[in-house]
Each structure stands twice: as structure tokens, then as C-alpha cells.
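User: Hey, my collaborator sent me this sequence without any context and asked if I could get a structure. I don't really work with proteins. Can you help?
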Amino acid sequence: MGRVRRPARSRHAIARTLVLLALHYALPDHRYVAIPAAIVVLYLGVMLVQERRWRALQVR
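Assistant: No problem. I've predicted the 3D structure and written it out in C-alpha cell form, which is a compact way to encode the shape of the chain:
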């Protein structure tokens, strides 16, 4: 079997990890608010990308 490449998933996982790690160390007193807020923002971005892709498929 060949390897399936999923660059969007890799980018999302790397971005999420780096952002959360940075917030963990940059805002130690606010990490229980900053980290969930960052997760929400990242997933809103993912939802926007998925919506654009879905709309592009509907036009065809």
C-alpha cells in the first residue's frame, strides 16, 4: 500500500501543537483560558476552509 498524503492535516496538527505549546509557556497564569480559546480559533479556521471546499464542489 502507498502512503496517503494529507498536507492539510499535517499543517493543522503542527500549527495546533506549536500554538498551544507557545501559549502554555507564554501565558502560564492564563493557560486554562488561552489554550481553549486558541483551539476554538484554530477550529473556526478549519471550518472556514472546509466550507469553502464544500461550496467549490457544489458549483461543479
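In plain terms: Helices lie at 7-26, 31-59. You can pass these C-alpha cells on to your collaborator as they are.
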